[in-house]
Structure formats: C-alpha cells, structure tokens
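Lab notes, practical 5.
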Amino acid sequence: MDYFIKLLLSGTAKGSIYALIALGYTMVYGIVQLINFAHGEVYMIGGFTALIIGGFLFVLGLPVPLVLLLSIVASVVFSAAFGFTIERLAYKPLRNKPRLSALISAIGISMVLQNFILLAQTEKYLSFPSYLPELAFLQPVREYINSTQFIILVTTAVIMVILTVIIKFTRIGKAMRATAQDKQMAQLVGVDINRVISLTFIMGSSLAAIGGVLICSYMGQINYYIGFVAGIKAFVAAVLGGIGSIPGAVLGSFILGWTESLGTGYISSDYEDAYAFVILILILSVKPDGILGKNQKQKV
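Output from the prediction step:
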C-alpha cells in the first residue's frame, strides 16, 4: 500500500506539470481552433532561460530564494514574448486560411525552435540546479512525497485557481469566452479579438515556462529535446480530457500522470512513453470527444 501511495503522489506531481503545458494547448485551441505544436518548445525555452539567468545570478552571489524568484520571472517574461511573437508572425497571417496551413506552420516553428536551441546550447543533457528549497515540515512523510513534488502540486493548484478566476470573473476572461464561442459576434459587440488571441498565447506560454522551471528542477537536467516529448504528452492529456476544455485538460493530465507512474512502477519503465497513447486509445474508443469534451457540430 505504501508503494502504491508513493507512485500515486509521484504521478500527481507529474500530472501537474502536464497540466501546466496542456492548458496552453487547450486555451489556444478553444479560441482559435489551432493546435500549437510549438508550445512544447516554449516550455523548453522557459527551462533554458531559468538555467542561464539562474547561473548568472548565482555567480553574483544572490541568495537562492531570490535566484529562484528572478529566474521564474525572467523565464515567464521571455517565454511569453516568444509566444506572442510566434502568434503574430506564424499564426495570425494564416488565421483565415485552411487549418492545414496553420498546422504545418506550427510544426515548422517547433522544428526551428528546437534547432535554434541546439545550435545556441548543445545536444547533450545539461545539469539543472535544484532551485526549490527543502521543506522541514515534510520530514515525517518524506518517503511518500518530497519537497519538490509538494511545491509542484501547490504551485499548480494556485495557478489553476487564479486561471479559473480570470476566465470566469474578469473582463478579459469574458472576452476570451466570447471569442471562443463566436469571433464575428464578439467583434460586433466590441471585443478586440486580436488582443484576446495574443493574450491567450501569452498566458499559455507563461504557464509552460513555469512548468519548464519546475520539472527541470525536479529532474535535475535539461536538453533541447525535452519540449517535444513533454509537448506531445501534454497534447495527449488535453485530447484525453477534451480539447478546448480547461477542466478536461487538468483531468486528462492527472490521468496521464497516474497511468505513467503506476505503469512504470508495476509493469516496466521501458514503456513509459507508450502508456500515454495506450490510455488515449482506450478512452477515446469510448468517449471520442474526450472525457469532458462536447460534440460540436460544424457547418460545411
């Protein structure tokens, strides 16, 4: 039983990271009906930004808590700028074109960013320092959950609450929901859909950056290719829960995290990446629109 609880908590922490990335996928799809396959690379860039800025601040002799804070802020700002630029340069000109054009553009941006980091950094795995502090009050339960996992869970929970409040109760949240429902009608009532879409990319990229810092601190290493793998899994989580549904993205992420953790613990770690697609096939065969997805009819 102790082993099961340990695996379950580990899967919950992993699912929390997937959720931060999957939310970016599902928010963008819900508003512009676009799968942003470059989103995983934004997550990777967030991690590299924290590594570079954190290393520079360590050399200056700043205390670890301040290094962590400034690294996360720099990572969020840089990744948000990347997300905004990608939307304006690669996606906005294709917004009214066939969806295949935007999809190909997204894949192209993903490859460009991968190779950009490969040339700017290295193809090898780099050590990533653990910015996250040890929490003394977790000492009695350390065999079940460590400080890094606890911080990941709390951070993700806080972000989910803040995002829910923004979407449901703020002016920009209402504008986002209106744009997702009907862009033309939203424009007629005064909503600046270009601003809304750009802000959606900025918010999604910021969440991915936070996920990049947390997971790299947890794993202790970073590589130019981590964005592709994490991005694919987060996309699977978003589809699993129902693409376009924010609660669905969170639920799908946790299911994916639990499946991978229990699968590697009880079956084999050799098939960790395959578990995501097995559970996706099983659930979509029963619920084609995802667990919380809705069947939307499209006009032709």
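Observations recorded by the TA: The first strand starts at residue 126 and ends at 127. The radius of gyration is 19 Å.
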